[in-house]
């Protein structure tokens, strides 16, 4: 097993990119891995800044983030860049500042994950014009989050399928079984 202190920041970045399409999730992974390995912990701006940044990124990722969280991460990153004693701390600060400029964190504060990967910010929706009312999604949903009636030959007046957001746990099983690709992910409303 590799010594965690000898892990390179570039390896952490690559792993984050391979695992996550969402920049906020990448940032969380990066900071978590940096804290558990390459960070030496010898300078206060880097060690405390990373811990505080991780808390703020977690708030944003969970849909609880506010404008102040973004501002605070920017201030932390700028201080880390100016005051960190080693290149690793400065590179981490630049990494965070780069993603803050992208506007992705702002989208998350507005409760929308553009990559549609943060469960707290996505909803599953059934597109009525594409749904054939086969009922496979309802059968696959073990949480009872899908309401509606299967279509029966020569009958009218059945209820169309719909996903009740409060019951949905975002497991994705309904998407996997839908033969018509009638279920999509959208940003939370």
CATH class of the largest domain: Mainly Alpha
Which sheet architecture does the biggest sheet show? 2 strands, antiparallel
CATH topology of the largest domain: de novo design (two linked rop proteins)
Radius of gyration over alpha carbons? 21 Å
**Major beta sheet, strand line-up:** 1-4
Share of β-strand residues:
5-15%
The number of strands is 4
CATH architecture of the largest domain: Up-down Bundle
| Structural class label | mainly alpha
Overall 3D geometry?
elongated
CATH superfamily of the largest domain: NADH-ubiquinone oxidoreductase 51kDa subunit, iron-sulphur binding domain
The averaged pLDDT comes out at 89
Ranges where pLDDT stays below 50 over 5 or more residues in a row are: none
Order of helices and strands: HHHHHHEHEEHE
Q: What percent of the residues sit in helical stretches (DSSP H or I)?
A: 40-55%
Number of domains: 2
Distance between the termini: 45 Å
Number of helices: 8
